[in-house]
Specification:
- The chain is about 25% helix and about 25% strand.
- The chain has about 300 residues and is an alpha+beta fold.
- The protein has a single domain, classed as 4-Layer Sandwich (Metallo-beta-lactamase, Chain A).
- It has a seven-stranded mixed beta sheet with strand order 1-2-3-4-7-9-10, covered by helices on one side. Strands 11-12-13-14-15-16 form a six-stranded mixed beta sheet. A three-stranded antiparallel beta sheet has the order 6-5-8.
- Helix 1 packs parallel to helix 2 and helix 4 packs across helix 7.
- The longest helix is centred in the first third of the chain and has 12 residues.
C-alpha cells in the first residue's frame, strides 16, 4: 500500500501483481466519505474460481479508517481483470459510477454475450453514468469527470481539482513515462481519440498527480503508481517519439499490431459491462461464463 496525504484527503494505492492493476481508496478527511477506484475481483482462469482477497483488503481498509463508502468508480470497462464493484457495494454500500458512453461498449459486447432477456443493458446496472465535465461530491471534496476516449470509447478520468495537490485517476489512458500509452485496438477504440484525450490530460496543471491503473514494471523496476503531468509531458516515451497526431497514430497502430488479446478479456468484459455482477446460477446451482468460438481469431 502506498499513501499520499494532504490536509483535505488521504489517497491509498493497492497493487494486484496478478494483473498489474492499481486500485485506489480516496478519503475525505473531514467527513470520512470515501471512494474506491478500479477495484479487482480475483479470478483464477485455470480453475474458473473467483475470490475476494483483493477486494477484502479494500473493505478492511475502509473499515480501519472509519470510512463511509460513497462511490465505487470505474474508469472504463476493463479487459484485463474482473471488477469487484458489485461485491464491494454489497459489503459497504455506495454507488457504482462509470462514463455515460458505457451503453456503446455494452452494445458492442452484447453481440458476443447476449442478455438472457434479449434486452440491451443501456447503462444498467450502474448507478451513475457520468457525462463529460459532470461534477460530484465526495464529502467536501469536489471531483469532475473528463471523457477521455481512445483505449475504449467510454473511458473517463476523475479529477480532484485540489489547489495544492490535484489528482486525476486516468485509467489506461496513460502509463508510467517509461511505458507509454494505452493500446487502441479494442472494439470502438481510436488512436486519434487517445491522442486528443492525452493532450487534454496534459493541459491540467503540471503538478497534478496522474493515478495510473496499471504498472507493468519494465525490466523489473520498482512499482510506479503515479506520475505528474509535468513528468509525462517531459518523459513519456510515446509522446516524445511523436511530435503530432499523425505520428502518434502510426506508432500506436504499429505497436498494437504486435499485441495479443489480454488473457482475461473474455471473462472480464462479460462481467465488467454488468458492474461486476456475476451470471445468475443455472438450474444446477452453478454460475457459468461464456466463451464465444471462432469470432475472435486474429484480434481483440
Amino acid at each position: 500500500m502506498d499513501v499520499l496525504e494532504t490536509d483535505t484527503y488521504r489517497l491509498e494505492a493497492f497493487f494486484d501483481p496478478a494483473t498489474s492493476t492499481l486500485s485506489y481508496l480516496l478519503l475525505c478527511r473531514a467527513t470520512k466519505a470515501c471512494a474506491l477506484v478500479d477495484p479487482v475481483l480475483d479470478y483464477h482462469p485455470a480453475t474458473g474460481h473467483t475470490d475476494t482477497t483483493s477486494a477484502d483488503r479494500l473493505v478492511a481498509r475502509v473499515q480501519e479508517l472509519g470510512g463511509q463508502l460513497a462511490w465505487i468508480l470505474e474508469t472504463h470497462v476493463h479487459a484485463d481483470h474482473l471488477t469487484a464493484a458489485s461485491y464491494l457495494q454489497q459489503a459497504l454500500g455506495g454507488r457504482i459510477g462509470i462514463g455515460d458512453r458505457i451503453g456503446q461498449v455494452q452494445a458492442t459486447f452484447e453481440r458476443w454475450f447476449p442478455s438472457k432477456d434479449g434486452q440491451g443493458l443501456e447503462g444498467r446496472p450502474f448507478d451513475r453514468l457520468f457525462a463529460d465535465e459532470d461534477r460530484f461530491q465526495l464529502g467536501r471534496l469536489n471531483l469532475r469527470v473528463l471523457h477521455t476516449p481512445g483505449h475504449t470509447p467510454a473511458c473517463v478520468s476523475y479529477v480532484l481539482d485540489d489547489s495544492d495537490a490535484p489528482l486525476a485517476f486516468v485509467g489506461d489512458t496513460l502509463f508510467s513515462p517509461d511505458y507509454g500509452t494505452a493500446r487502441c485496438d479494442f472494439p470502438g477504440a481510436s488512436a486519434a481519440c487517445l491522442y486528443h484525450s492525452i493532450q487534454r490530460l496534459l493541459s491540467l496543471p503540471g503538478h497534478t498527480q496522474l493515478l495510473l491503473c496499471h504498472d507493468y514494471r519494465p525490466n523489473g523496476r520498482a512499482l510506479v503508481w503515479r506520475s505528474s503531468v509535468a513528468e509525462q509531458r517531459a518523459h513519456n516515451l510515446h509522446l516524445q517519439a511523436c511530435p503530432n497526431e499523425a505520428s502518434f497514430v502510426t506508432l500506436r497502430q504499429q505497436r498494437d499490431a504486435t499485441l495479443g488479446m489480454p488473457a482475461l478479456m473474455l471473462p472480464a468484459v462479460q462481467v465488467n459491462v454488468r458492474a461486476g455482477r456475476l451470471p445468475a446460477p443455472q438450474a444446477n446451482g452453478v454460475r457459468y461464463l461464456s466463451i464465444p468460438l471462432n469470432i475472435l481469431k486474429d484480434a481483440p
